[in-house]
Specification:
Elements lengths: L1 H20 L9 H14 L13 E4 L13 H13 L12 H5 L3 H5 L5 H10 L4 H14 L15 H12 L3 E9 H4 L3 H5 L6 E13 L2 E12 L5 H9 L6 E4 L5 H8 L6 E6 L20 H9 L2 E4 H4 L7
Parallel strand pairs: 1-2, 1-5, 2-3, 5-6, 6-7
Antiparallel strand pairs: 3-4
Helix pairs in contact: 3-6
Pfam families: HAD
Protein name: Haloacid dehalogenase
Organism: Pseudomonas abyssi
């Protein structure tokens, strides 16, 4: 009996080890998972006619709604709101001045839609005058303490476990992954390496202008706060071209803001892969697509059907959504 018990224990141990080594283990073994694995195998097999050299294995990922949750409001907007409130005591005029007045009343959506240049005004207020090192620290401090307004979890726990596994799987197969987001590049770079394993130099995003200045006898790069480049929609292929210098062979998004990135990626020669995360799980996350004011998925969903892109049904394709 003791021998059988030891054998049974050994079999369980080996089974558990096999499970942990299975790629994309939080994905259901369906069409989406198989499409990813099939593509990776084709481009990494030296004997395959679709083999791609490691130097050209570039993958690009949107962030909001693709790698982490974007509902009920973009994370960076919450950060900007907190920054405005923290500085309100030094700016008493904001009590009656839009878009700041709406922020101070707790109406972030109203603040950002109050005028055409409201986002620029709020972003400028959140970082203008800070040098890059100081702003990095402000972001890190905020990420350590801020909580998601619906789940009360740290934002670093609002990432998608299946997508973390996908990043690891691609890295294990000599892909180089980049984040390409409409979010601010200076907001993302302080934490993407610790959360996703993607270093700052592989983050492409919207940029604000900066200038060189001498402060207290030290040369610094200082934020001006004015918008320099909007890395959304048609801006994404442009940002990739300027920052990466290679057309990706794989692109991952979730909304119409990613459409041009997916189109440009799949327009290249050779093996190409495009994937859309479709938010269909109202119980474990959120369900939204064509009519959503955040992360609207309309034109890109139609394009996916037309071009045969992989569409991930979150409710059906993912065993779990967030890390345990």
């Amino acid at each position: 009996m003791k021998g059988l018990a030891l054998l049974f224990t050994l079999l369980i141990s080996l089974t558990c080890q096999a499970d942990t080594s299975t790629p994309l283990s939080s994905w259901q073994d369906g069409a989406s998972r198989q499409a990813i694995i099939s593509f990776v195998q084709r481009v990494t097999d030296p004997a395959s006619p679709e083999h791609v050299a490691p130097s050209d294995r570039i993958a690009v990922f949107d962030n909001d709604g693709t790698l982490w949750a974007e509902q009920p409001i973009y994370t960076q907007l919450l950060f900007v709101g907190d920054r405005v409130r923290a500085q309100a005591g030094e700016n008493p005029a904001w009590e009656s001045q839009e878009p700041f007045a709406s922020v101070l009343k707790g109406d972030l959506a109203g603040a950002f839609s109050s005028s055409h240049d409201a986002p620029v005004q709020l972003i400028r207020a959140s970082q203008a005058g800070l040098d890059t090192d100081s702003f990095d620290q402000v972001v890190r401090d905020w990420m350590q303490t801020a909580r998601h307004p619906t789940t009360d979890k740290p934002f670093t726990r609002m990432v998608y476990q299946p997508m973390l596994e996908l990043l690891d799987y691609l890295q294990d197969n000599d892909f180089k992954s980049f984040i390409v987001s409409g979010g601010g590049v200076d907001f993302m770079r302080p934490w993407t390496e610790s959360v996703y394993g993607i270093p700052p130099e592989r983050v492409v995003g919207s940029r604000t202008a900066k200038q060189l200045a001498v402060q207290d006898g030290v040369v610094r790069v200082v934020h001006e706060g004015t918008m320099e480049f909007n890395d959304d929609k048609e801006g994404k292929p442009i940002g990739i071209s300027q920052h990466i210098g290679r057309r990706p062979i794989a692109a991952f998004g979730n909304s119409d803001g990613d459409l041009q990135m997916l189109q440009w990626t799949t327009a290249g020669d050779g093996a190409r892969f495009a994937l859309i995360v479709h938010h269909t799980d109202a119980e474990r996350e959120w369900a939204y697509d064509r009519d959503s004011s955040i992360g609207r998925l309309d034109q890109a969903l139609d394009a996916a059907a037309e071009h045969g892109w992989t569409v991930v049904n979150m409710k059906q394709d993912w065993k779990q959504v967030f890390p345990d």
